[in-house]
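User: As part of a screening pipeline, I want to sanity-check one entry by hand. Below is the sequence and the SMILES for zinc ion. Please return the complex as structure tokens so I can compare it with the automated output.
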Amino acid sequence: MPDYRIIDVHNHIYPEKIVSKATDAIGDFYDINMQHLGTGDELVEAGKRAGIEKFVVCSAATIPQQVPTINNFIAAECEKHPEFIGFGTLHAEFEDTENEIARMKEMGLRGVKLHPDFQKFYLDDPKAIEMFKAIRDNDMWVLVHVGDDRYDYSQPERMARVIEKVPGLKVIAAHFGGYRRWASALNVYKPGTIYFDISSSMHFMDEELVYSFFDRYGIESFFWGTDFPMWDHKEELELFFDLGLSEKDNKMILYENFAKAFGLV
Ligand SMILES: [Zn+2]
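Assistant: Here is the complex for your manual check:
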């Protein structure tokens, strides 16, 4: 096995004080047995064991009032851990988006994480569209949880509408662009307008479907991620290598696509 450079683009971290409650709640929501607890220190430890070099870290605000506190927390974790790339959060109902984005940028955060099913807003709601425009105009990225077969907030069709209405928005659509809604996600986006992460998905997809995504959208559109603390880095890497992609494709998905998109040297 070549010595791959690896970035994990999807990690959730929580303050020590609330970590077990937060992680339990997510496990219950998805009916999945969480592999880790979810502090920043634990992430570095688990990730390093699997050879991960850098981690995009985030945490979505369930209610608008949590936005500034979470952004402060993510920024503080990034100061503590140089291997972290911080994504803050926003909410469609948050009042002071422009100022908060300016504050995020000042603190060195590179993007925004959203999870409409937890946050309870429709991705293509007019208020959300305004928020996405502000994110784009400030040259920030957005990592969006997309898809659920039980809720309507984050459907792939809504994500596609956002990209149509906010051209140039830099989107990473999590979970192949539509968790448990892969049939829609496979067709609904225009190739070249969106990036995907492949976290929390391959346990539930057959290999043929995964390959259909690579064929339609191109290997250059995919980033590797774990959705920590839900899954373990080592096991997720094994699952990825089981696909049997070429060394070149592995390198692109594990590191190069993200490094190129984010201008890492
Ligand atoms: Zn997530």
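Points to compare against the pipeline: The chain has a mean pLDDT of 95. The domain at 7-262 is CATH 3.20.20.140 (TIM Barrel).
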